[in-house]
Amino acid sequence: MNRKEIREIKKRFSPDMNNFGHIYGCYVNAAREIITYMDSPTMLMENEEREMYMKTLKKVLSGALGRNLLDVEFSTAQVEDSDEHRLLQTLRTSHLSNETMRKILFQRIIDSVDMGDTGYVILLAADAYDVPYKDSGSDEWSEESTDQFEYFVCCLCPVKDPKGALRYLAEEKNFRGVSTGSILGAPDMGFMFPTFDDRMTNIYQALYYTRSSADVHSDFLKAVFNLDKLPMAANTQKNAFDSALADSLKDECDIDVVKALHSQIGEKIDLLKEAKSDEAPEIHINELEEILMKSGTSDEAIEKFHETCKQYFEGEEFFNPENLINRRQFKIETPEVNVSVDPEHAFGIRTEVIDGRSYLMIPISEGITVNGVDVSIPDGSESDAVGAGAREGEETEA
User: Fold this and answer.
1) In this structure, are residues 189 and 220 in contact, taking their beta carbons and an 8 Å threshold?
2) Inter-helix orientation angle 299-312/285-294, to 10°
3) Is the pLDDT of residue 266 over 70?
4) What is the arithmetic mean of pLDDT over 221-244?
């Protein structure tokens, strides 16, 4: 699904529409014991309660494509005959009314997911969307629909423990200790099945949500989708890219190469944002190799980089550029010094050997602040740069 299709479905999560007939749920404590099952007709909810449920469920369609929202693909064999796909299809076509199937899904998740000392709630909601269309040669949406998109969403929300607080009681004109009660948190993970691709039903895919870009919750993915190949978390992709560079380029992986990659991948991200594409951003491995070639990297090292990337990324050749670099920061770390530089000013950084010792040289345009104190810069050529690499534990920010 692209961003435009996601936005179209997110509009369905409105408390005023009443298109989600029931909210189903299962409350599980930290010991993986089911406390209760829930079946709440939305028509019987107060407006505020229904709005909070819609806001929580809509989170499953929030976040960045390729970071928080990941495509889950079923094989043809799974779609034709597998327990996991059959379960999801049965839940979809029954609009979640099949209690036995709901409990099977709940139990699969409970048996696989470990939330530590935190209890949680699994929520389910189904919708049938009469997909509007435009008549040929017209910009107006037709009120009639020939296609219906039936789908459901599932999310796992941690439950926050009750907390004591002093609350003012007007009748007593005093503050008294009260408990705020257990609170349902925002979803940690969830999915929508099936996907809405080209504004049509695609039972070969699900859209998976993870709140954290560092963790895709592989236990949840395996329990629900039984995947042979799990999607990589955004942070895992960053670490894999960094390792592929260091392992393949070795001595050729100098600061100029990393600066060039960071700068040109950043430019690619900016261009994609300016284009306002609804698709997830992509960069091909050939584009990365071209950057390395222009940076003077040897053909042998580039070939090794290609092989290492395919190994670390399990054969993938298209990457989300936003997962490969930190666009907002250019960070340099040594055993003695940590330096954070605005990427726009990273081009001037260089390394230099002076009297047999390596230094990190950072151009300075204005003054320097050290531990909150504005300090002066000596006149002369030495004032053009700061050598970083002297004292243990120092941290410089430019």
Assistant:
1) yes
2) 150
3) yes
4) 92
Q: In the predicted model, is pLDDT for residue 197 greater than 80?
A: yes
Helices (DSSP H) in the chain: which residue ranges? 3-10, 47-58, 76-80, 83-93, 99-112, 218-225, 234-249, 255-275, 285-294, 299-312
The beta-carbon contacts of 346-354 under 8 Å, at least 24 apart in sequence, are 346/259, 346/262, 346/263, 347/259, 347/263, 349/255, 349/259, 350/255, 350/256, 351/254, 351/255, 354/387
pTM, to two decimals: 0.83
Angle between helix 255-275 and helix 234-249 axes, rounded to 10 deg: 140
Q: How many residues in total does the chain contain?
A: 398
Distance CA 398, CA 392 (A): 18
- Look-up of token digits 């990457």: 319
| Distance of alpha carbon 227 from alpha carbon 216, whole angstroms | 13
Spatial separation of the C-alpha atoms in residues 359 and 345, rounded to whole Å: 18
User: Residue 96's pLDDT is what?
Assistant: 97
Residue with more model confidence, 395 or 232 = 232
Q: Tokens 């978390």 label which residue?
A: 233
